[in-house]
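Q: Hi! First time doing this. I have a protein sequence and I read that you can turn it into a structure. Is that right? Here it is:
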Amino acid sequence: MEKELIMVRFGELSTKGKNRGDFINLLGSNIKRALKQFSDLTYEVRRDHIYIHLHGVDYEKVKPILKTVSGLSSFSIVYKVENDIEKMKEACLELVSSKKAKTFKIHAKRAEKVFPMISDEINRAIASHILKNTSLKVDVHNPDLLVSLTIRQNETYIYFDQEEGAGGYPLGIGGKGLMMMSGGIDSPVACYLMMKRGVKMECIHFAAPPYTNEGVITKITDLCKILAKYQGEVKIYVVPFTHLQEEIYRYAKESYAITIMRRMMYRITERIAKYHNDLVIANGESIGQVASQTLKSMQQIECVVNTPVIRPLACVDKVDIIKIARQLGTYDISIRPFEDCCTIFEPKNPTTAPNPEKIKEIEEAWNWEEQVKECIANIKVIRVDENYQPVTNIEENYL
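A: Yes, that's right. Below is the predicted 3D structure, encoded as structure tokens:
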């Protein structure tokens, strides 16, 4: 019986048909990248499962890292034996004898139908052997110990528990996107959900010093340290937005300032996205949460870009967003008392149904295009690497 083997299951990837192989190969590569610190591990990437041979590596150290890999449905520590009923019986007896339990259940599944016994016959044969040689009792409804067997063409895998994985699709299979990262509770959660669906994410943040504190940048960096656990590195584009924001408030009435500001943010974000081949723009907006997130506001704001905009949290309640943020570990960082430019300049009575003619009148009043170019020309880039530390060599004038 071979011990210390992890069986990785795919979940949604089973629906991918002809593309299944590409998804599985990418998942295998992502797992190897995530676990590269464990040089003794070896891997078998198959069409049905991925198997990780531990070779003495502590499973408890591997387990939390595997949980961060998107595209992975579940995994188990398994024991491999030959497809011989006597060896299967002895292996199960040895394993259950090492556990503290009073009741058990055997659940066999023939993934390959070539094995001469049907599943029920296998269950009965193994259970009878355990009953004869231990004081354990069978409980088919609520056992202390569920012993699962997966019988394949050349071997049988025995396991007890399944650890839940991140689910979704392998990171990178969906291309690359650009997240509008404010530093609040919502945008890091939205970023994580995009990663979980297989999209590798970059982030863009609009800074307005001296109105915004330098602590905001630290907050954004710390949030991306957590997000880096899921993709190895996160790149942050920090846009100097102060001058443009001041001009917006000079030419726009208070009720329209947020609308114009968000339109400018979208314009800048799209240009960065196109420059870096990001296929989509994403943000943490939720319908109706604030004035700029009513459907009428979203329509008038988003119409300035042609790049698809994805809002993973559009229909998610705030309490559920907070729950995910706590699970990720981003919540306590997001609530630090450092406000972004949207919060600091938030008007008292913003419009929830902006008039397109009024928007046109405001934007034709001054040469905002030159200021947009100035913002882009002075972007700073921060990389948070796979060791979850910010890279110190920040690039100036990146574009």
